[in-house]
Specification:
Blueprint lengths: L8 H19 L5 H8 L7 H24 L1 H18 L6 H29 L2 H32 L10 H12 L8 H6 L1 H10 L3 H28 L4 H51 L3 H29 L5 H18 L10 H36 L1
Protein name: Major facilitator superfamily (MFS) profile domain-containing protein
Membrane topology: Multi-pass membrane protein
GO molecular function, one term: transmembrane transporter activity
């Protein structure tokens, strides 16, 4: 039986808008990276302006988990949003590379706070299938944010390199919306959460524990971002124009939005772990096709697989983290999930240092994805067998 949520449509929109900020950390500066790096005099390793926030999220995420469990998700979200805004806007005032790097690292920490606290609020206001649908929408919002902010960031950076940082001001808008649209009372879903405990047990039986979920999250994000990081260089070598590369990357995000919207149907039809297994199989197919073919039809097919893999994996794992957690440790577990997501992004920076060509990188990552898919599916079959044996023994 589904439970209806108590949040207004404005409150729901607010949580989804907050979710877009997690990808905006890098998307705001990515289109005008070269001009922004020159303007900040951060030219030696300009890509660090994009990757350092992920490092900050890895470092500071556990701190925000404790804040959520101690002070509540709403207070943590407001703190993270205001700090995100101030740090994002103030970087243009800095002139030292060390201070700029520190700014980006701490900014990433507050991005992790936004992600974890936002999901914690979703877990408070939604239960059961309604919660899964809302977390699926959250995944859609993150990908849509990537499409929108990459587009707007490019326009602003073209006007002036400092203008791109105005996007971080959206965090202040989110903070005001939280104040007025999300109530501060904590009498939320207490009795209804108890009635949905049996559904949480189903998810617990599907995933062996939080460590399993976090491992899958790191792998999923590493596989997905290996394509995001490598495709521009790979496609440029295949004589695709910058415009075409932008269209392909945007198409991946749009497919991810559609896949995330269909996630509840997949879970209902084939259960959690089979859906997860399918998502990694999609990653493997995408990487194999990217490494094997250069025709536009094949590239678009691979992009479809890549977007589907993301849309079916990260929102599902996010939901599993919520369901497997108890009220007293939910903040901590969600902060670890945020850390895992950003860790997967950050680990892809090693691709630039691998002494092999990108085609071989694609094939290696494809093989890894297929192995993970088989592992997830095999564990599902093993769990099913055990449950049948337990039933027969009874």
């Amino acid at each position: 039986m589904n439970t209806s949520n108590n949040l207004s449509r404005t409150g729901e929109f607010t949580l989804l808008l907050c979710a877009t900020l997690t990808i905006m950390v890098g998307a705001a500066v990515a289109p005008g990276l070269i001009a922004i790096a020159k303007g900040l005099q951060f030219t030696q390793y300009p890509s660090l302006l994009i990757t350092l926030p992920a490092l900050g999220a890895i470092i500071f995420a556990p701190l925000f988990g404790r804040w959520i469990d101690k002070h509540g998700a709403r207070k943590t979200l407001l703190l993270s949003l205001w700090s995100y805004c101030v740090l994002g806007l103030s970087v243009v005032l800095l002139s030292s590379e060390i201070l700029i790097a520190a700014n980006r690292i701490v900014l990433g920490g507050f991005a992790a706070g936004v992600m974890a606290a936002g999901t914690a609020l979703i877990s408070q206001w939604y239960t059961g299938e309604a919660r899964l649908k809302m977390i699926a929408k959250q995944g859609m919002a993150i990908e849509l944010g990537g499409v929108i902010f990459l587009f707007i960031g490019g326009i602003l950076a073209q006007a002036h390199w400092k203008a791109a940082f105005l996007l971080y001001g959206i965090a202040a808008v989110c903070a005001l919306l939280v104040v007025f649209s999300i109530p501060s009372n904590q009498k939320i879903l207490t009795s209804r959460n108890r009635t949905s405990d049996h559904k949480a047990k189903d998810v617990v039986s599907s995933f062996s524990g939080i460590k399993s979920i976090l491992s899958f999250a790191v792998c999923a994000m590493a596989l997905f971002f290996s394509m995001v990081v490598s495709l521009p260089q790979h496609l440029e070598a295949l004589d695709y124009s910058e415009a075409h590369i932008g269209y392909i990357l945007s198409y991946i995000s749009l497919v991810a939005v559609v896949a995330a919207s269909l996630l509840p149907r997949f879970v209902k039809a084939i259960k959690e772990k089979r859906t997860l297994s399918l998502s990694f199989l999609c990653f493997g197919a995408a990487l194999f096709v990217f490494g094997s073919f250069s025709e536009i039809q094949a590239i678009m097919l691979a992009a479809t697989f890549a977007g589907t893999g993301f849309g079916l994996s990260i929102p599902l794992l996010n939901h599993a983290t919520v369901e497997i957690s108890q009220e007293e440790n939910r903040g901590k577990n969600l902060s670890f999930f945020a850390m895992a997501v950003f860790a997967g992004q950050f680990f892809t920076s090693i691709i630039d240092f691998l002494p092999v060509n990108l085609n071989l990188v694609f094939f290696i990552f494809s093989a890894v994805a297929v192995c993970i898919s088989i592992g997830a599916f095999s564990s599902t079959l093993f769990s099913t067998l055990l449950s049948k044996l337990d039933t027969n023994s009874d």
